[in-house]
Amino acid sequence: MRAQAMAEVSAGIRDDRGRWLSRTDVATMRERFGTPVVIHRAALLEILRAALPEGAVRTGISVLEAGVDGSVIHSEGVSTADLVVGADGIRSVVRRAVCGEVAPRYAGYTAWRAVVDIDEPLTEFGETWGRGARFGMAPLADGRVYCFAVYNAPENATGSLAEVRDRFENWHHPISALLAAADPNTVLHNDIYDLPALPTFTAGRIALLGDAAHAMTPNLGQGGCQALEDAVVLARLAAEPDGLARYDRERRPRTQMIVERSARIGTIAQLSARPLVTLRNTSLRLTPTSIQLRSMAEVLDWTC
User: Fold this and answer.
1) The pTM is what?
2) Which pLDDT tens digit goes with each residue over 178-211?
3) Residue 52: how many CB atoms within 10 A of its CB?
4) Is residue 89 part of a domain?
5) Number of domains present in the structure of the chain
6) How far is 142 from 253, CA to CA, in rounded Å?
7) How far apart are the first and last CA of the chain?
8) Which domain holds residue 285?
């Protein structure tokens, strides 16, 4: 993974004019938590898939229902297993067998995401916070840039890439260039949701993992990370007599804490009232880096 990842990237938060509100002390973070890396999700998935036996992954099959007895009804029939892992996302079918119907919560903002090519190299990773809107960028190892534009909007509101470009046209460089390079045919537009706290991640022979268990807003960059943590812990405990109960006790408090923390950060980042935005930006500028790192320890300082 590290061979295909971008490491040693500086990061921070800026205002829409490009003035730094906070900078991440990468050297201290590396010493305290390890080296953070940026990798394209598709590259990570391919690395994981390549480690599996041929034929282990079957695509194009729709799961219709799961049972606590380990049965799964799908588009090609019925399968049974000692363990069913529901890793089927925020609108999980498998979750119904564990917790019934659970409606995702709309966060109040929508996001446009793209991976683009630009002429100049980018070495900064971070976000720009404006009034009710944000822009983020992250360089990838192959020279491309992952970027996203976020703004407050009613749920299911329509929009176009052209409107997004207009909304951010006066923000600092290279935001306009990144949006200009985005391909309308590949850009993704999604409203942002998370899940309320579930009473359990397990039932019978079923264990929920990732977004199916604890879908969160992307404000901490922890959605995929927490799914990987889930997988490591579940693999360690699944074969033990009380393994699923221990998995639930170990993973539910931690992930639900991160869900709520990410939601709070999103609320602060998406402030739109000018006095509150001024107060937020001033507070960020005055907060020492040591306090910022200490506040992140609860999320980043984890070992299996």
Assistant:
1) 0.93
2) 999 999 999 999 999 999 999 999 999 999 999 9
3) 9
4) yes
5) 2
6) 37
7) 19
8) 1-57+105-193+273-304
